[in-house]
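P.,

For your records, the input lines for the assembly:
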Amino acid sequence: FMQRGLDSQTKKQLEEEERKIISDEHWYLDLPDLKEKESFIIEERSFMACEDLLYGRMSFKGFNPEIEKLMIQMNSRGKEEEIEADDKMEADVSDEEMARRYETLVGTIGKKFLRKRDQRVLQDEDEDRNSNATPSKIVKKQFLKPKD
Amino acid sequence: MAARCEAAARVGQVVLPGDVLLLPARPEQSDERLLRLGTGAAAAAATRGRLLCGPGLRRCEAGLLVTKGGILRHRAGGGAFWVDSQQKRYVPVKGDHVIGIVTAKAGDLFKVDVGGSEQASLSYLAFEGATKRNRPNVQVGDLIYGQFLVANKDMEPELVCIDSSGRSSGMGIIGQDGFLFKVSLRLIRKLLAPKCEIIEDLSQLYPFELVLGMNGRIWVKAKTVHQTLIIVNILEASENMTAEQRKQALAKLSGN
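Structure tokens returned:
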């Protein structure tokens, strides 16, 4: 019981000593000046980062339509990053129209998934509303046991 | 004796290797940053101290050391300095789009000549939609438009024909016919600048297709061989022609 504890204690002591030795030597480089300036200047060997160059594949007067599409796409991608304004996409359908359509849409699509019984119920309800006649009794079909 | 000068003062002038460009001293972070919070991105970048040191320049204790002769350029947005130099020999740089010629097929790997000191390697899986069963149809002698994935002085450069999202976005095997020729690197950068007059003038002539590699190689394809050769000659000569001479030459051609 005690031995395990002792071992872990000695281990901890050894670790602490190691840490003391290592921390002073390992983590500090010999050139503290350059380290300071690392975040200051970034070295870059590519011209693409400095100048605003276009995409290398080009096509003119419709010689290669795919590349013409690609040209528009790639060159505008670079410019979109500069424009940071939030442009809302113009909706094809206005909000009011959307609400109106949605009302009717829910009903029609919902009917598709009704079972046959409920469809009959719906039909009777519609007729009631239209005719304003006496409510007809809805006879629910029940399971008839086959006679022997 | 190396010249020491303020970086901002030498923009647009010729600098020689060995010149030291002094940068404005970085102010103390705590106070200045609070004061300048409202004054815009450029000021903020300067106070934060982020400066891009482009090709032809190296970092040294005092500021920037010039390693290539040329004209010093500066870009205000993001504070970048670089030297606009002239050379014909290409050194592979990561991220550059180049035209390469396939020289050898070694099992799963293609060896591509990009004009550098070593041949670049291109894996057969680095094409869009390539799997182990569905291999791309690349033969020796094909032209490839790709970008460098790895390019440093210690390792063999690697090309890929897809971008980071897995799409080809125009890279891959360049089609049949057409004409490949080599120009200096400065002309390529001039042609790739937005609103290049040479390209705009040429695009009025005939329909044609053009691929520009950052390694100095240009591939042109037009409807007839004659038209292709005309475009090639104009592109090669436009490095040494003034704008007027070029317009005269084009006027003669469109007159014919």
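Two observations worth noting. The interface with chain A takes residues 23, 26, 49-55, 57-59, 61, 64, 73, 75, 80, 82, 93-97, 145, 169-170, 189, 192-194, 199, 202-203, 206-214, 221-223 of chain B (CB under 8 Å). Confidence is low (pLDDT under 50) at residues 28-47 of chain B.

Regards
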